[in-house]
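Researcher: Sequence of Dynein light chain follows. Predict its structure.
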Amino acid sequence: MKCDMSDEMKQEAMELCITAAEKYADNYENVSRMIKETMDKKFGASWHTVVGEGYGFEITYQLKHLLYMYCAGNLAICIWKSA
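Model: Prediction complete. Tokens:
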């Protein structure tokens, strides 16, 4: 896991990712949508998400607004906020 967030935001984001992954286990698009919409409402607009298995990425993000974690084995979730 890579995280550049405050402890409170990190805890809420991780719980959200796990909840979304469990709720929509068979649909990564819905996992991503739930995470993005919830983060936008809770922490302001411009959150982005990538959910899947076996991908690489290069992003620019706002400092203290990045979380990359694995959930349920090899399901990777990356969320970040850009200005």
